[in-house]
Amino acid sequence: MHEVTRIRREARHRAASVSSVVQLTPVMRRIVFSSEEFADFESASPDDHVKIAFPQQGGPDSKPAKRDFTPRLFDKNSITIDFALHDAGPATQWANQAKVGDSLMIGGPRGSNVVPDDFDWYIFIGDETALPAIGRWVEQLRMGVPVATYIMTEGADDRQMFKTASSYRSTWLVRSNASDEATAIKSELAGFVAPPGDGFVWIGAEAAVARSLRDYFLKDRQHPKAWVKASGYWQRGVADADVKIED
Q1: FRET partner for 94 with CA separation of 20 to 30 A, picked from 23, 30, 43, 224?
Q2: Residue 116: helix, strand or coil by DSSP?
Q3: Within 13 Å, how many C-alpha atoms sit on residue 32's CB side?
Q4: pTM for this one?
């Protein structure tokens, strides 16, 4: 019960071109990449990531900047990536200027850690950068299972709607003090009453925030360590960074 399945794949890089660009919210730009090479693309877990290579200024010999992103949607011909536009860096700069016909190389996913849909309840916590993974997760969970989300955004216009068969309750928070984001989220979580049974907790946010929230569930709420997953999707003051949360 509650066994995470680990899937490994051979590294694969695919050439893709932009087929659609939509400003989804003030801080989120949705870009669809199309390619016949996506015919065998697989992404088994909502928080999978692909690695996208972005060109950098500095001449033809400059190495591309590689960054990780969660596929929000995909089919045999396309992948949809939602870009959270925050700290300036190669990925954000490229996304701000992207237009139909632009091309990039997209690699992976090299693997998936598939969390089973057999928990009694789920809670997903994060900021704008975690919305692609949270959206996928909420939309695919089974009918009626209790799901709660706590999401911090820059403003009310950054909220998104998810279609789901689950028993879904969302809490949206507006960022007021970036240096104390974890405290604001924990204040809201104080009112969260866990349903009966086993629950899975997923956190995706700025690295320090993700660590703080992980510690809150492990120490304050005594939640089983195996049922908490936290990822640092970015690091304050470091453009386009992603940080692993270590034990």
Answers
A1: 43
A2: coil
A3: 12
A4: 0.93
